[in-house]
């Protein structure tokens, strides 16, 4: 406390960069609001074992003054409020009153400069650099910090950060691509040439890369040119490198890197990415150099894994430039050199897809799906790709099976959305494999194209010309079938619902008064809070008076009636839907979930088990049946359903965990 005034309490559960920024934010807030700050360094759920010994960084007397014991934190936390609860205020009055009453404020913001609506963030940002002097660091650490200040501050230095390390060699990180974290060395080379002779320092978690750059650029510094960190702990090395990076006049780094982002925040400056410092022409030149290096073969890389990761960048440039044959040819030497990265078969199958090598694409995709190291997102993308390949080969049922596996696993994955749109536009999805959906409307409800290379393996224009479909239209009715938790939370996402409504409003091929549009608009209006459940019910009944044969419209009415609390009427509406499609496992499953929610547990479980007996292609239905039988102690029956669920989506760990539990108690 400061004269009875409440204090700011900083805490973070993650790693060094975020914790440092949290500290600086607390210092800033304490200064501006006339109070002190404390630190809860060991919050519950902390995940940074390298920071378990803060005395490696901080002076004992400073820790004594500012670090809270577990008991002290619990006492203060009883009446504390989170900082975010004041961030919508238009004046500091409520926050000042809270502090004046002696109550604390919890600060967990760790990656952005914090500013309230009444403050000027650009006036606050530059102050962060000086706040580092307010932290009581260990004298040996402070001495190296001072040396970094003398060497780097105000010298016009550019700091470069190259992220590699576990991405190249660590498990499971090496088995997926990192387009926002891995930037090719050629980008750094191009900027070094552009700023020829200017002072520069490079930081990397891959020492070999530092040596490689220093051979070509002798003036390029690294941390060892400032201080010898041999013998220091990981926390000390990480902090000193991060601090040294923050002293540079500009920091140039990959788009996503917590390390360099934290350094930039501490410096009080904005971090730069290559599109900020290189022209489009210079980036194109760098891309050609990347392709040229890949063309030299795997031997010019640190190892086959590095060759694979840099190839993933080159392949996108080549395919975007309609040079898929080059991308295809350049992949084989890396594969033959022994690169075992699980994403490689996916990339080569994509190359085959672009080239129309359907049989080879199918073979590579099936082989790739057998790799247990494949990441969940890549598994879904590869399932969708195999579906598109099978569709192109006229194997419509197989195409639909693979798409539904991809969609229910990762329905928001851009690759899945784009490839699924292609299959839908080309009538390659059998309706029998899917729940009741307004397919004609779905073809016309679209979303904006994805940003090129942003979380995408494929090149969109080589897959579809039109904008991709907005498959949130399917999730609006059937989110319970998705395994991905973010996808299941559609109803709580106002932004996604608003985008879906925007897509519906843009539809021109179907009249606004058509039952399909009216039904969807009623449900969206209710979910967005624009109309009451009662109004949406009235509109849904009006739609059914015009089009009574669509089970989807009855299901939507049932959901609205449930929301209004009229469970009896909702049961009748589900009954009407099932009468129109009595063998639909999706309707039976949804009805079963509804019965569970209203307390008819036994009847609901019976329907879910019935649905699992009718459907053999939907992991969520198979898994739900297995979980019911596990709870009943019928492990032998449960195993059959859970094994099927696991085989449909092997990257979803829950099913494997449940099978392990069955094995452990048998």
TrEMBL record:
InterPro entries: TPR-like_helical_dom_sf (IPR011990), TPR_rpt (IPR019734)
Superkingdom of this protein's organism: Bacteria
Protein name according to UniProt: Tetratricopeptide repeat protein
Source species of the chain: Ruegeria sediminis
């Amino acid at each position: 406390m400061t004269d009875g005034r409440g204090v700011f309490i900083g805490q973070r559960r993650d790693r060094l960069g975020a914790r440092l920024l949290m500290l600086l934010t607390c210092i800033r807030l304490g200064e501006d609001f006339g109070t002190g700050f404390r630190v809860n360094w060991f919050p519950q759920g902390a995940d940074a074992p390298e920071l378990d010994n803060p005395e490696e960084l901080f002076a004992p007397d400073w820790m004594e003054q500012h670090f809270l014991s577990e008991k002290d934190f619990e006492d203060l936390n009883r009446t504390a409020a989170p900082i975010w609860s004041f961030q919508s205020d238009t004046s500091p009055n409520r926050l000042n009153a809270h502090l004046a009453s002696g109550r604390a404020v919890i600060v967990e913001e760790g990656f952005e400069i914090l500013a309230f609506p009444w403050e000027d963030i650009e006036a606050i940002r530059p102050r962060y650099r000086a706040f580092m002097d307010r932290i009581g660091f260990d004298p040996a650490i402070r001495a190296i910090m001072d040396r970094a200040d003398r060497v780097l501050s105000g010298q016009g230095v550019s700091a470069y950060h190259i992220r590699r390390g576990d991405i190249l060699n660590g498990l499971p990180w090496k088995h997926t691509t990192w387009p926002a974290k891995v930037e090719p060395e050629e980008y750094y080379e191009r900027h070094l040439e552009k700023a020829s002779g200017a002072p520069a320092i490079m930081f990397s978690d891959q020492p070999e890369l530092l040596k490689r750059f220093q051979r070509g650029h002798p003036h390029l510094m690294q941390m060892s040119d400032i201080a010898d960190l041999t013998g220091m702990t990981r926390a000390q090395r990480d902090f000193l490198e991060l601090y040294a990076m923050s002293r540079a006049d500009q920091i140039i780094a990959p788009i996503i890197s917590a390390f360099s982002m934290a350094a930039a925040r501490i410096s009080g400056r904005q971090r730069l990415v290559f599109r900020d410092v290189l022209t489009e022409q210079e980036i194109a030149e760098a891309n050609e150099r990347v392709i040229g290096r890949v063309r030299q073969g795997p031997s010019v890389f640190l190892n086959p894994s590095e060759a694979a990761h840099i190839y993933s960048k080159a392949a996108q440039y080549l395919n975007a430039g309609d040079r898929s044959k080059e991308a295809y040819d350049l992949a084989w030497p890396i594969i033959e050199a022994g690169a075992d990265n699980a994403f490689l078969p996916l990339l080569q199958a994509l190359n085959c897809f672009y080239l129309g090598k359907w049989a080879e694409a199918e073979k590579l995709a099936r082989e790739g799906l057998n790799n247990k190291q494949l990441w969940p997102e890549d598994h879904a993308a590869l399932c969708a790709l195999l579906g598109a390949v099978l569709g192109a080969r006229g194997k419509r049922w197989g195409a639909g099976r693979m798409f539904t596996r991809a969609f229910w696993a990762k329905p928001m994955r851009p690759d899945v959305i784009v490839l699924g749109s292609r299959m839908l536009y080309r009538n390659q999805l059998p309706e029998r494999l899917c729940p009741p959906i307004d397919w004609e409307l779905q073809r016309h409800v679209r979303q904006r194209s994805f940003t090129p290379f942003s979380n995408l393996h494929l090149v969109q224009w080589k897959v579809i010309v039109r904008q991709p479909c907005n498959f949130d239209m399917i999730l609006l009715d059937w989110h319970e079938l998705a395994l991905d938790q973010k996808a299941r939370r559609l109803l709580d996402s106002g932004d996604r619902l608003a985008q879906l409504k925007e897509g519906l409003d843009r539809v021109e091929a179907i009249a606004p008064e058509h039952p399909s549009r009216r039904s969807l608009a009623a449900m969206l209006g209710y979910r967005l809070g624009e109309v009451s459940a009662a109004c949406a019910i009235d509109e849904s009944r009006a739609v059914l008076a015009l089009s009574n044969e669509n089970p989807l419209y009855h299901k939507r009415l049932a959901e609205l009636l449930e929301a209004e609390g009229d469970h009896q009427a909702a049961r009748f509406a589900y009954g009407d839907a099932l009468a129109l499609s009595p063998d639909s496992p999706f309707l039976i499953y949804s009805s079963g979930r509804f019965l569970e929610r209203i307390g008819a547990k036994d009847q609901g479980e019976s329907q879910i088990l019935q649905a699992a007996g009718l459907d053999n292609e939907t992991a969520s239905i198979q898994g739900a049946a297995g979980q019911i039988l596990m709870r009943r102690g019928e492990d032998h029956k449960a195993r059959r359903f859970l094994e099927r669920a696991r085989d449909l989506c092997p990257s979803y760990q829950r099913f494997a965990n449940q099978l392990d539990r069955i094995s452990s108690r048998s």
